[in-house]
Specification:
Shape: globular
Radius of gyration: 16 Å
Strand content: 15-25%
Helix content: 25-40%
Number of strands: 11
Largest sheet: 9 strands, antiparallel
Low-confidence stretches: 1-12, 19-25
Order of helices and strands: HEEHEEEHEEHEEEHHHE
Structural class: alpha+beta
Amino acid sequence: MNIYTCLLLASAGLLTTTPSKAQNTKPAPTKVATASMPDTFHAIFKTTKGDFSIEAYKTWAPKGVSRLFELINSGYFNNNVIFRVQADYVVQFGISDDTSLYAFWNSQPILDEPLQQPNKKGIISFASGGPNTRSNQLFINKKDNYKLDTINIQGAVGYPPVARVTSGWEVVEQFYGGHGREPVNHQDSAARYGNAYWEKRFPGLDKIIIAAIIL
């Protein structure tokens, strides 16, 4: 994928970094078992602006919801910068401050699934950069984004929803968006240098302090 194509996709949709072979000197994280995952589960995200809660539905996208369960249960979203905040569009996050942890999950994308629900306001979906590239980045729709149901990204059609925000919408609305979509063009640097890059290049961004499954 050349840089021109990347910029076009970033502008039109929700592009992620390309799965890489970045150096990983730490032991590989242990994947969380999902065999006992309930068909529906709840999670809370504590952020620098307050808390919001979500509900995920396995029937919406079994592979995507299983990955979401793994990521939350493993602590992947802890200390995670909310790097993209666009008014009347989306909120996006999922680049870990732990660069080896990011590389691990980013190198294990899941297969595409058919879209079962529309990308309406409050709906959460995985970002992707083409066929079978969903891995570790999420976005929250800040409005009804029906165009994201049918957009074609190099042959992958739409962004299948996996969950919805059930409370704390006022928190989502408060995330700092002064940098708009520009941080999207810096994902590779953040994946390499962690939160220090965001803090230096894009000050003021909010963070997820901790995310946890609610039993």
